[in-house]
Amino acid sequence: MIIAPHASLRDSDPDVVLFTVLRPDGSADAATCPASLTAEVLRMAYRHMRRLRLLDARMVVLQRQGRIGFYGACTGQEAVPIATGLVAQKDDWVFPALREQSVMLVRGYPLRAFVAQVFGNAGDGQKGRQMPSHQAGKSVHQVSWSSCIGPQLPHAVGAAMAMKLRHDACVSFGFCGDGATSQPDFHAAMLFAARFQAPVVIVCQNNHWAISVPTERQTASRTIAVKGRAYGIPSVRVDGNDLLAVYKVLEDAAGRARRGEGPTFVEAVTYRIGAHSTSDDPTRYRSDAEVDAWKKKDPVDRLAKHLRFLGLLTESDEAKLDEELTAEIAEAVRDVEAMGAPPRASLFEDVYATVDSILPFHLREQREQLLALSPLSRVEAPPRA
């Protein structure tokens, strides 16, 4: 166990030690490397991380081309969501923030449906009602995140409290960024998690920027992890670009929760390589030198180096994998982009349990009027002077 309640969090230790497993040469610390990370799991982790990197790049290009409206890439932060997907069990629930949607892909959610949500068309399980990059899937127990900062954390704790009351051996994973730890919802979640010993793992991806506000300007804490002390929650600070370390910390934290030992708070120290979203220009508030320094700690490259150290990956393997994943993503985009808009009648679905027998008369009339209309034609803008 690397998480000892109160033992490693003494007041004489102002910073929680950064837990890491991978070494610069690609080897791993045998004393801390999780035994459950077999060669097969490591290969799977790399495949998911590499696919996510390529998928994000493709989605950003589509947004720049005007083919989708918005996207929030995970570039530089792939280790945390992929490790979570590998650690989470079938009945666990995930409450993501902006950069954890890909957990659901690791847990088996179809890539086409994931991409369709970004387009908001007929292939979107949410029927085009949610903002792009807000994927959710009941089949993989993942809810949509909120663009408001932090409200998913009380939801994660509430779900965990329900699990405990039902005596389910399940865990709730709740995510936030460093900026969210300065929001009231974070503190409410921590208070209830500790007081009711909820089986929840709360993970903060500290990527050093709350959009354009650096961490040191929005909190006076020496680290994010120390914020767990005030609530009596065992906390750990982990290298968020080290997949092996993140996997170990989350595996231990989930194990504690399943054994009825309560919540854990994790600060994953990482960095957002790209923009906050496609609506952001990070060159306005941070230097290229800072970004370049963090690129040397790229989580995908570090895992690849470890696999090469173990003899599990060659240059030809990497080239073949990239070719395969690029084709998979291109096919998904091609299929999804060919889909039409969600049916207009779907506007009246999911409001009541049974549409025809429960729908009030005024909504039935509105539905009939809507369906009687001809499809809307695109109105051309007048020529510019």
Summarize this entry quickly:
The chain is α/β, with parallel strands linked by helices. The chain contains 13 helices and eight strands.
Question: Can you walk me through this structure?
Answer:
It is a single chain. This protein is an alpha/beta fold and 385 residues long. It folds into two domains: 320 residues, Thiamin diphosphate (ThDP)-binding fold, Pyr/PP domains (Rossmann fold), CATH 3.40.50.970; 43 residues, no CATH class. 39% of the residues lie in helices and 9% in strands. It contains 13 helices and eight strands. The strands form two sheets. The chain has a six-stranded parallel beta sheet, with helices on both faces. Strand 7, helix 8 and strand 8 form a beta-alpha-beta unit. Helix 1 packs antiparallel against helix 10. The longest helix is centred in the first third of the chain and has 26 residues. The protein is globular.
